[in-house]
UniProtKB/TrEMBL annotation:
PROSITE patterns: HTH_ARAC_FAMILY_1, HTH_ARAC_FAMILY_2
GO molecular function, one term: sequence-specific DNA binding
Annotated InterPro entries: Class_I_gatase-like, DJ-1/PfpI, Homeodomain-like_sf, HTH_AraC, HTH_AraC-typ_CS, INH-QAR, Tscrpt_reg_AraC-type_HTH
Organism expressing this protein natively: Mesorhizobium alhagi CCNWXJ12-2
Record's keyword terms, sorted: DNA-binding, Transcription, Transcription regulation
Lineage: Bacteria, Pseudomonadati, Pseudomonadota, Alphaproteobacteria, Hyphomicrobiales
Protein's recorded name: Transcriptional regulator
Domain HTH araC/xylS-type: 243-341
Coiled-coil annotated residue ranges, if any: none
Length: 359
């Protein structure tokens, strides 16, 4: 934070909103940054007594849009921007939340006025942050060319297609790039919490970041995004032969030597098939099969109680150690850890069964 006549000046944070955003990240970031410094005041001993509004704020968050007036978001919820981009000539931090972008057409439909404004704020020295699909906005603004970033795993196909010169790390939760790390992106959904805590630690202290994380029950996503990612399957590619093979693989992924067999199903020479399959889906046939198998194994771990070895055999791996190695490579954690993290809790399972007719 800066100083003005001996008084600490909060960092100005412009949370910029597109019509395509959903409100969860917008309000989550706003509330978290608003609370930083405000909720805990006094000596360390006094802070142990709990939150008490009246401390010195670290940030002054504001919701910003292209224009004034109610803005109906993609979820149908309306939001009232506090400022318009034309009113803000300078700011300390720009935070771009999560426009929902599933196709190149969605990306091109985003309000160009906001994208250009983000680029101007970067030129004037603002720290630029993005969450989830917000990194697509940064790329569209020309801020990520030749640089590293991350995004929500579901945006990866569009990102790679539209911005091949950006080094995308979809497995990582946080990526800092640019001169002096003046561009920070975080991955999908709740990873904005990691980014908000990073900002609190940078402009306040690590102790304040810990206090805020405890108050809001936030947890660092230390294992990255891989455990949360699902296979992004491209079926809108216009190659009828590859689509036929994808349909066949969905029913036969557990067969032995399936990668060779699907090439025969295609009716094409293997090298031609491999080339066309990769061009259409982004995967080699073998990598596609492995991803399908791991996706099925993840669902079985989430919903069932079969032993890990049995699940490996069910999806096509007779050797348990090979299955475990591949699972860890694809998800970043072991099958057992995945089950402990993502299996539906027993109290949820039992209550949902009790609520069913005749339960």
């Amino acid at each position: 934070m800066g100083q003005a006549g001996g008084t600490t000046v909060p960092k100005r944070v412009s949370i910029v909103v597109f019509r395509e955003c959903d409100p969860s990240i917008i309000y989550g970031v706003f509330d978290t940054l608003w609370a930083a410094g405000r909720l805990f005041k006094g000596s360390p001993g006094e802070r142990l007594l709990g939150p008490s509004i009246g401390g010195t704020p670290l940030f002054e968050p504001r919701i910003v849009a292209a224009e004034h007036g109610p803005l109906e978001l993609i979820t149908g919820v309306s939001i009232i921007p506090q400022d318009s981009i034309d009113e803000i000539d300078e700011t300390d931090i720009v935070f771009v939340p999560n426009p929902i972008v599933l196709t190149p057409a969605d990306l091109h439909a985003l309000d160009r006025r906001i994208i250009d404004w983000v680029a101007r704020m970067h030129e004037k020295g603002a720290l630029i942050c993005s969450a989830c699909g917000g990194s697509l906005v940064l790329a569209a603004a020309g801020l990520l060319s030749g640089r590293e970033t991350t995004t929500h795993w579901s945006h990866v196909p569009v990102f790679r297609q539209e911005f091949p010169d950006v080094r995308l790390h979809e497995d990582r939760i946080l990526v800092q790039s640019g001169d002096g790390h003046n561009i920070i992106s975080c991955g999908g959904a709740s990873s904005w919490q990691d980014l908000a805590l990073l900002l609190i630690a940078r402009y306040g202290s690590g102790e304040e970041a810990i206090r805020i994380s405890r108050f809001f029950l936030y947890q660092w996503h230390r294992d990255g995004q891989l455990p949360y990612a699902s296979m992004a399957v491209n079926v809108v590619h216009g190659d009828a032969v590859v689509l036929k093979c994808q349909t066949w693989l969905a029913q036969n992924y557990d067969r032995p030597d399936v990668a060779a067999e699907v090439a025969r199903v295609s009716g094409l020479p293997k090298r031609t098939f491999d080339r066309r399959f990769r061009a259409a889906t982004g995967y080699s046939p073998l990598a596609y099969v492995q991803a399908l198998r791991i996706e099925e194994a993840k669902q079985m771990l989430e919903t069932g109680s079969d032993p890990v070895d049995a699940i490996g055999r069910e999806v096509g791996y007779e050797d348990a150690s090979s299955f475990s190695r591949l699972f860890r490579r694809q998800t970043g954690i072991s099958p057992g850890d995945y089950r402990r993290r993502f299996r539906i809790p027993d109290y949820i399972r039992s209550s949902s069964q009790d609520a069913r007719p005749g339960g």
